[in-house]
Amino acid sequence: MSKTTKWLVGGVAVVAIAGIAYASFGPQTQSKDKETLTVGIMAGDKRTDKQWKIIKNNAKKEGLTLKIKTFTDYTQPNAALSSGDIDANAFQHYIFLNDWNKSHKSNIVPVGETILVAGRLYSDKHKSIKDIPENGTVGISNSKVTQGRSLLVLQSAGLIKIASNVKDPTVKDIVENKKNLKFKELATDQLVRTLPEVDVAAIDPSFIVGSGRSIKSAIYVQPVDKNTHGGINIIATTKNKKNSVAIKKFVKAYQSDNVADYIDNKSGTGEIAVWKGAPKVQ
């Protein structure tokens, strides 16, 4: 083989190798800049839309496009995740996910904490839990599920104790009531109206906002501790995706200071940003 022929063959080989290298690495770099992740959430309101706009903008700065898919049934986001219709979801708390995995034998895992819908107590008569008198009156929802949550808030505040083996407690499950508090059970949407009459009431923040009051007027806010940990909402995905770059970028985009500021101080939802490193509520 002549020197010229060897040079030509060698040149072709170099070009071929360069082409293979580009095919192997070039497109990956390009696709990395255009990563897309589909996230399932529950249909919300304008406040939720604003929050997700902030999250999407954060993700965009990381080279990640978030596509949001909304659901109206709480069984849908996890089913869609397991089937591969979405890549992650952000709608449920630890307790819900644990129950789902047990009953559906699924492999959905939490990859980041988001918010806690903290229980709150309100009063027109008192500025502190300590001011609530003996034989005082407590306004509480007559809905079984809501009443159970409200009783846990009252227990957290030190006003009562409820039986430890009851999943959804009612007033009948109160085992200690040192102040001999009386309970006035009402429809959930009527509790705000009863504030002038009762000493304290457990009220959903959405009804407080609807009445023109400030969420921050609560005299007690349920803290983030071992008793409320199960109620912390999470970002979830499947085991095979939990370590992906896109998922990590999504978690970072959500767990940002500007998202925490919106949740805690501007959303009006009564939610608290609870991930590690989240700014404290002002």
Automatic annotation (TrEMBL):
PANTHER family in the record: D-METHIONINE-BINDING LIPOPROTEIN METQ, METHIONINE-BINDING LIPOPROTEIN METQ
GO-annotated cellular components: membrane
Lineage: Bacteria, Bacillati, Bacillota, Bacilli, Lactobacillales
Subcellular location: Membrane
The protein's name: Methionine ABC transporter substrate-binding protein
Database matches in Pfam families: Lipoprotein_9
Membrane topology field: Lipid-anchor
Protein keywords: Lipoprotein, Membrane, Palmitate, Signal
Keyword Lipoprotein: yes
Family, similarity comment: Belongs to the NlpA lipoprotein family.
Organism: Leuconostoc pseudomesenteroides
Presence of the UniProt keyword Lipoprotein in the record: yes
Main subcellular location: membrane
Signal peptide start-end: 1-23
